[in-house]
Amino acid sequence: MASIEVFKALVGEAVEDMKKLPPPLVRIAGPLRTGGDGYETNLQRLKQGEALLRSRGLTVFGYTGKYADAIKAAYDLHFEHFHIPILKTGLIQSIFFLPKWEESRGAAYERQLCTELGVSIGDISYEELSVFESESRGS
Description:
Layout (H helix, E strand, L loop, with lengths): L3 H16 L5 E5 L9 H17 L3 E2 L5 H8 L1 H14 L5 E4 L7 H13 L2 E4 L2 H12 L2
Parallel strand pairs: 1-2, 1-3, 3-4
């Protein structure tokens, strides 16, 4: 079971991982568990959004592997004790929001926090995702 102490340690590891990545460092945000079009569709859209940003030459810091495992184990703690501390480091230059972000409690709060912290905000539209998917398939 993940705890606040586990998240504090993971934030330290994440900061070290982020410092090794080439800038600009960005994240993707949007509905996952709340809002959007359901968990599976939202998850696919997040992955597609990350691939789109990488295709634009941006370095996407994703919460996968050990980070995802801790978040799953203590979902109610992750935002306050993992996402927010990472955002406050200043290492993430921009967060790109997927369609229907405003339906997600977490994404809506994250957008507000970006505004307060001066983190650049971008939006990715359904059209951009659709065009990227078509181009990726060679259609």
